[in-house]
Design goal:
Blueprint lengths: L3 H11 L3 H12 L1 H4 L4 H6 L1 H13 L3 H21 L1 H7 L3 H10 L1 H15 L6 H16 L14 H17 L3 H16 L3 H14 L3 H24 L7 H19 L13 H19 L10 H26 L5 H30 L2
Helix pairs in contact: 1-2, 1-6, 2-7, 5-6, 6-7, 6-9, 6-10, 8-9, 8-10, 9-10, 9-11, 10-12, 11-12, 11-13, 13-14, 13-15, 14-16, 15-16, 16-18, 17-18
Length: 366
Amino acid sequence: MYSPKLQALLSLNFGFMIPSCVSLMSRLSHLLPSCGLSYLSLLTGSDVDAITNIVIEEKDDFISCLSYIKLGASLSVIWGLVSDDVAQAAGQNISAVKDELQTDQTARWQAVVMFKHLLMPVGMPWKLKRHSMDFLLSITSKTNARNEEADCSLYMPRLFVALQALTKFIICEPEASLRKDAFQALKMVLADIPVPQRFDILHALIIDSDSPSMIALLLDLARGELHKSCQRMSTGTEEVLPTENQSHWTSGVLELVELVLRPPGGVPPSFPEQGDAVLAALNLYRFILISESAGKIHTGALSKATLLKAYNEWLLPLRTLVMGIMAVNKDGCDPDTVDAICALNPVELVLYRCIELVEEKMKDAV
């Protein structure tokens, strides 16, 4: 009987010994056809559910086995990428599996959900992580089918967890190339989610993150989504985002700005820790003000009450904080002080531009 738990444990403990493991993984993979298992059904989770049901019936320490079962199922496919011998032993065609996932959006969502198990183990050997990330990129960035009207509500909670795993991987992974590819995969997975749900997931990821750098990256993605919304409106293709969803999408963007510029508790953000997130939030707010002034979006940002709130609760306290830090450090010559001033300079520039825009809009606000 094929054991995904055994596959997971062997991969985590001996996966760094790739040549030695290939022969063993080939023998394990040879059991797949006789068990009626395929790479595609392992990746989409249908065969994993069947294996899980067997474990439940046998009451074989189910809770501790479950994560290994799902990890091992995904690793079965990754070993097929590592070595053609493993794929041949399993009777599987990796290229055909990729083609199927690239053309079937629902199957792709299911595979992304399963892939979160590959991103979580701390001790995953580098080469297995590399092949995992390459495979995830290949099925998300080379898609031949992307339906903006598809219903992904059933997968939303699990896609959110998968994207959470990707953000944590980006933060914690020491290898720069893997971090870069993981961020690209994050963008591709988000792009694969229909527009109305995309902002909901971005919003939840930003609220969930405790990394200022990751919050900054996600806010930049939110700004990019707003920009695309403006482009759709200017070209008359905004029908993919109904009015009620667009209103929900855009009104929630101001909440993201406030989350950073006026954190819970009402105190201004701290520097230099929150510098990246603050700069991204200010850039997003400036984009909102400019785009709304041009009639490209509607967030309610130009109403008098919203402008006053932003001015008095976000921008002025932040200006006081930045001016105070600059004054204290203006005569400093040590490297840390110079770094702090350099980090604050772009924040100061965008902050003053936002203040100017808000003061200008308040004159005409009703």
